[in-house]
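Sequence, please.
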């Protein structure tokens, strides 16, 4: 518990500039990643079925519901579709909870944290033990820290999520997770274009950006 409070405290310190920035008028599509407040959400879906999606090619979006609030604190519900991603972690048996894509389905998202969003990766815990929640919080902190060094980074927003399995096969579970900026949104924000390259030569990359990434990865202990 002490470690959880320490990491949350570090997260709050790193995110303070974002929170202050959110006090100013901004583009609605920027709302989600311009605030440091932790979202409080409930996600209802058939998580047992999502857990069994082990083929990326045949994986499909499944219906779900997010319960949260609008910017004034009033209760809101958002109809969504969920799809399993990073399936290899499930196939190898390393993780028992699915990483997800969250797609918003025709909702009126104005005046909510999700204004302007269409599809978002949701980073979830790998396993339900407390140790894996700590791993997730550290990963979130790494994203936030790198974002202080360069705009060419993926923005994130922390959430405390209550997962409700509508199949009734899994108990209700409360864990932290975080939404990550979709690659398409990153490209638009940076005025760049996404391309698919099979054989990438590292020498073609921006030297400064590559050096920054390499040093940062070394700093956080990701040396592989």
């Amino acid at each position: 518990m002490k470690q959880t409070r320490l990491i949350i405290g570090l997260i709050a310190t790193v995110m303070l500039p974002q929170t202050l920035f959110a006090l100013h008028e901004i583009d609605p599509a920027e709302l989600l990643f311009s605030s440091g407040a932790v979202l409080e959400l409930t996600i209802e879906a058939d998580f047992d079925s999502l857990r069994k999606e082990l083929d990326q090619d045949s994986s499909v979006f499944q219906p779900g519901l997010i319960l949260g609030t609008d910017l004034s604190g009033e209760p809101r519900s958002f109809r969504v579709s969920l799809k399993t991603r990073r399936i290899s972690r499930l196939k190898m048996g390393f993780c028992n909870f699915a990483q997800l894509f969250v797609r918003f389905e025709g909702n009126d998202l104005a005046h909510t944290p999700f204004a302007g969003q269409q599809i978002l990766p949701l980073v979830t815990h790998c396993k339900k033990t407390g140790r894996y929640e700590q791993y997730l919080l550290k990963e979130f902190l790494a994203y936030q820290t790198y974002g202080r060094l360069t705009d060419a980074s993926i923005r994130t927003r922390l959430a405390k999520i209550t997962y409700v399995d509508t199949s009734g096969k899994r108990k209700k579970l409360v864990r932290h997770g975080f939404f990550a900026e979709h690659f398409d949104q990153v490209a638009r924000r940076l005025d760049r274009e996404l391309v698919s390259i099979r054989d990438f030569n590292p020498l073609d990359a921006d030297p400064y950006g590559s050096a920054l990434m390499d040093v940062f990865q070394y700093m956080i202990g990701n040396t592989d």
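The radius of gyration is 18 Å.
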